[in-house]
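During the no-cost extension, the postdoctoral fellow (Dr. R.K.) reprocessed legacy sequence entries with the updated structure-token encoder. One reprocessed record is reproduced below for audit purposes.
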Amino acid sequence: MNDYITIALPKGKLFRRSRDLLAQVGWDAEGVSEDSRKLVLTNEEKKIRFIITKTVDLPTYVEYGAADIGFIGKDVLLEENKDVYELLDLGYGKCHLMMAVPEAKVRPDMADYAHLRVATKYPRCAKRFFDSQGIQMDIVKLNGSIELGPLIGLAECIVDIVETGTTIRENKLCEVARIFTSTARLIANPVSFKLKFDRLHGLVQDLQQALEAEK
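Re-encoded structure tokens follow.
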């Protein structure tokens, strides 16, 4: 399969936009759907294969060469810290990682939050942020409903990804720090990018042109 390009697409909010963008530049295959029962979908004519993965697993597929390239949010890249090339900032899927606390517990300075318990899906990113602020926190890893942590006393604050902030406001939480902004990125396995440079570099150029045309 060395003459094929294997593309990993993440389930969730980035899937449709990434698939459709690839289709715009002629990189598609029949039946590429988030709900597909097939694990691998192939376009034999164009020598393209698609795999659809859980978001958190996608950088691992690319790092180990099971996929040559993949589409993933910058937040996942920073949290997973895999050995991959970041080829292109695609610009869509914009959101940001932030720290929030209950409205009644907002404090004047970041140092005033030291030694609190924080619930998050992003323990590595959270630790790096708090280390940069010179404060220690007790980090609790959760996989869903992060906003529930402060409501039931599991944690005093949260670190989570938000797009509009509606959910945290509905749960009477207040954003007190913006940690970083995240958008979708095209990533590649370092070895694949060297061995299949012509096709992958051409794809990057085509995607850039398609994104510019949309603007």
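The first strand starts at residue 5 and ends at 10. The radius of gyration is 19 Å. The remaining legacy entries will be reprocessed before the final report is submitted.
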